[in-house]
Description:
Oligomer: single chain
CATH class of the largest domain: Mainly Beta
Distance between the termini: 59 Å
Helix content: 10-25%
CATH architecture of the largest domain: Beta Barrel
Largest sheet: 7 strands, antiparallel
Low-confidence stretches: 2-33, 100-105, 268-274
Shape: elongated
Strand content: 25-35%
Structural class: alpha+beta
Number of helices: 13
Amino acid sequence: xxxxxxxxxxxxxxxxxxxxxxxxxxxxxxxxxxxxxxxxxxxxxxxxxxxxxxxxxxxxxxxxxxxxxxxxxxxxxxxxxxxxxxxxxxxxxxxxxxxxxxxxxxxxxxxxxxxxxxxxxxxxxxxxxxxxxxxxxxxxxxxxxxxxxxxxxxxxxxxxxxxxxxxxxxxxxxxxxxxxxxxxxxxxxxxxxxxxxxxxxxxxxxxxxxxxxxxxxxxxxxxxxxxxxxxxxxxxxxxxxxxxxxxxxxxxxxxxxxxxxxxxxxxxxxxxxxxxxxxxxxxxxxxxxxxxxxxxxxxxxxxxxxxxxxxxxxxxxxxxxxxxxxxxxxxxxxxxxxxxxxxxxxxxxxxxxxxxxxxxxxxxxxxxxxxxxxxxxxxxxxxxxxxxxxxxxxxxxxxxxxxxxxxxxxxxxxxxxxxxxxxxxxxxxxxxxxxxxxxxxxxxxxxxxxxxxxxxxxxxxxxxxxxxxxxxxxxxxxxxxxxxxxxxxxxxxxxxx
Length: 497
C-alpha cells in the first residue's frame, strides 16, 4: 500500500498551491435558457467542468484526491466500530418505578442493583495470530466493558474479548475470532517523525456514523493536559472528530497509523481545532506485552515530580532552566539508592534534555527494568550526575505512601503565600502544602499551611536551604521546627528505614 501511495504523492505535495491557482482561475458561467427557466448542465465529453480550470491545476488536485481515495480504500477495511456495554451498580430503588426524589434518597447504600450502560467507540485491527484478530483502541472505550461487539466495514459483527487495558496510557486491546484471513491489517507508523504541518487523516465512527474519514494537518506534537491517564503525549490536529471517534486511527499520507484518536478539546463535545491523539511508537511494545501478559510493564525509579512556577525557581536556584522537580522520593527506591533526593531538579536523562514533567514520566516509563540510566540534576545550585538502575513498576510499591519522603510539597514564603496563610513577616521558612495521608509528614502531624522554620535545628529560609538540610546521606533521622498560628513546636524524629 505504501508504494501505491508514494506513486501519486509527488504531485500531491504541492496541492496547497493548486488551490491558490484554482481560486484565481474560476470564472462565472451564465445559465442558458429563457429568463424563467434554467437547466443543470452535464459535463462535456471533453472533460470541461463547471468552472474554467487549467488542466495542470486539475491534475494536481486530482492527484491529491487519488491519495485520499487510496487511503480510504486501503485502510477503512481495518477500522472497526466497537459497541460496548458496561455493567455498573447503583442504589436500588425500594419504591419500584416511583422516582427517588419523591420520597428522598434511600439511606441504605448497600442495597444496590446492577444496570447496563451502552457505549460506542472505534478501533483499528493491527495484528492477527491464526484465527484471532487484535484491535487497538482506548482504555476509556473498552477497558471496563463486560460486553463488546466488533463491527467490520462490510457489516459483519463478531463477539469481542478484552485482552488487556492500561489506564496510564489509555489503551486497550480487543480480540475477535474468524477464519477469514483476508481481513486487512493496518500498518503502524513512526509517530516520532511527525511534524507540524504534516497532512493527516482521522477514521472512526463519529456519532455512530461508521467508516468516516476526515483530514487536516498536524497542528502540534507533544501536547498534554487532557486528564486521561498520566502518560500524556498527544498529536494535535484540526482533522474533525466527534464522540465515537475515540479509539480510531490517525494516519499519515502513507496510510500508516501514527496515533489513536483519544480526546476532544471542546465545550460542546464537537471538535474545535484541537484533537488529541496518543503517539503510537511507544505502544508497539505495549501490544506485544498485552498479548503475552495482558498488561504493560513500566520502568520505575520512585520519585514524585512537580512543575515549578517561575516565581518559585529563584528560591531553588534554578532560574531560566527547563526540567522536572523531584518534590518527593520513595525511601528504598531506585532513585534514592542511586542518589536522587527530594528537592533535586532533573534536567537530563541519558544525555537528553528534560523539558517537562510529562516528558520525564514518559521517558522513564519506557526504560527497561535493570537498565542503568544517567540523570543530570541541579542540587543546591550545583549540577551533579547520578546513575540509577531502573526497576519494574509494581503498584503495591509505587502506591505505598508510607515510604514517600517527605510526604508534602514545600512552597517559598512569597508575599502571596504569606497573605493566603496569614503568616507574619518576621516568620522565616517554607510553607507546607499537599500533605498526603500515611506519609512521614502525616505521621509527624504536619498540616497544610504550617511553616517549617528549621530542620534538625538548622534554620531554613529558602527552598534550597530546606532541601539541603534534609540530605538523607547526612541524616539518619529528621525533625522539624514548625510554626503555625498557635506558635512554634518541634516535631518528633522520623527515622530513615
